[in-house]
Design a protein that fits this description.
Helix content is 4%, strand content 40%. By secondary structure, the chain is mainly beta. Strands 6, 7, 8, 9, 10, 11, 12 and 13 form an eight-stranded antiparallel β-sheet that branches. Strands 1-28-27-26 form a four-stranded antiparallel β-sheet. The chain is globular and about 45 Å long.
């Protein structure tokens, strides 16, 4: 089984790298490429900023109007498993453990921020956290394993608030803020792709920021108890600018993407990379050409990653130093699985898989 999975992974990675041969095309497709995004039928117009593929067959997506979808056949069909009565909620993140267990995060001020959990494939849901502090606004969450996870809120009393679970999202507690650096004036996170809080390994976690004078990445090596903050070269200084998405393939190697999400504003220096766990960041020599909100390392690759945004998909094959646009379709987030599948999702019900073309 292990050898078979490895062969499938390498095959898909090769297909993904074939995107470098593609010229950007209209309508979000790349007809000249050997591989590209293949849209799947979702039957909804919700915007999916939350995405959690588990493997080649199973994936979850969470989005606007309280919508949660699940597939177990590789995207050939999607089942609407939305929590009852959640139509007014904005789901911006989902973390899935398998085909039956998943946790979704609703964002917003005060009680609009909530966490719900299912253990039966979305047939039933349990609300495990509801924010009662009007000053808090939760943006993203991440899990280190099936039990330990964190969620983050925009600053409260001048510091980011961290929520922790030790039982797979069944219960949550606010962590002490004593180990959290002060937030910059105007600084916050972006609930754009479920990637403003990401983890790698059993204890390391990174938090992306924008809106302040500089765009920063905060790092914790003890599951959110203590943090250090580092400036990135991605421009900030405006509520619409900063780091929107992070991806770490291990404790050391990370990529940050962002820019200015406003359509009429340019996004120079929209990419950066780190090789020391986020202690320092170097700007991409050839960055993505526009705002990007999501980023993911290709499975089992040390140098290849995808970045997505409303105007296209970019590919790097050198660890984030240079990027090339390979697709012009609109996506908000992207993620890949250990067994070699990559998925993207975004506006108007768009969910796609990276697939080789016949």
């Amino acid at each position: 089984m292990g050898k078979t999975r490895r062969t499938m992974s390498v095959g898909l990675i090769g297909a993904a790298l074939a995107l470098t041969l593609a010229a950007p095309a209209r309508a979000g497709e790349t007809p000249t490429a050997a591989a590209g995004w293949q849209l799947t039928p979702t039957g909804t117009d919700a915007r999916f900023r939350g995405l959690a593929p588990v493997d080649r067959g199973t994936a979850w997506a969470a989005g606007s109007k309280g919508t949660v979808l699940r597939t177990t056949d590789g995207g050939r069909s999607w089942r609407n498993v939305s929590p009852p009565g959640a139509g007014d909620l904005e789901f911006r993140d989902v973390e899935a453990f398998d085909a039956r267990r998943a946790v979704v995060l609703a964002i917003g001020e005060g009680e609009a921020s909530r966490v719900l959990r299912t253990e039966d494939g979305g047939a039933t849901w349990t609300e495990s956290f509801r924010n009662t502090d009007a000053r808090a606004f939760y943006d993203c969450m991440t899990f280190f394993d099936h039990r330990h996870g964190l969620a983050m809120s925009d600053p409260v009393d001048g510091k980011y608030r961290i929520l922790s679970t030790r039982d797979g999202g069944r219960s949550w507690e606010v962590l002490p803020s004593t180990g959290m650096p002060d937030a910059l004036p105007g600084e916050a996170g972006f609930a754009a792709s479920g990637q403003c809080l990401v983890s790698a390994g059993p204890r390391d976690v990174w938090l992306a920021t924008g809106g302040g004078a500089t765009a920063r990445v905060l790092h914790s090596a003890d599951r959110g108890l203590t943090w250090t903050a580092t400036d990135t070269p991605i421009p900030a200084g405006d509520p619409a600018r900063g780091v929107f998405g992070l991806a770490f393939r291990d404790r050391a190697h990370g990529i940050a993407v962002g820019g200015d999400y406003r359509k009429d504003q340019p996004s120079p220096r929209a990419g950066a990379a780190s090789t020391d766990g986020g202690r320092t960041w170097r700007p991409s020599a050839t960055p993505p050409p526009a705002y990007r909100s999501g980023v993911a390392w290709l499975p089992h690759s040390k140098t290849a990653a995808l970045a997505v945004g409303p105007t296209g998909t970019d590919l790097t094959t050198d660890g984030g130093r240079t990027w090339r646009t390979v697709d012009t379709g609109s996506y908000d987030t992207v993620d890949c699985t250990p067994d070699g599948s990559c998925w993207a999702s975004g506006e108007k019900g768009r969910i796609a898989r990276l697939a080789a073309k016949p």
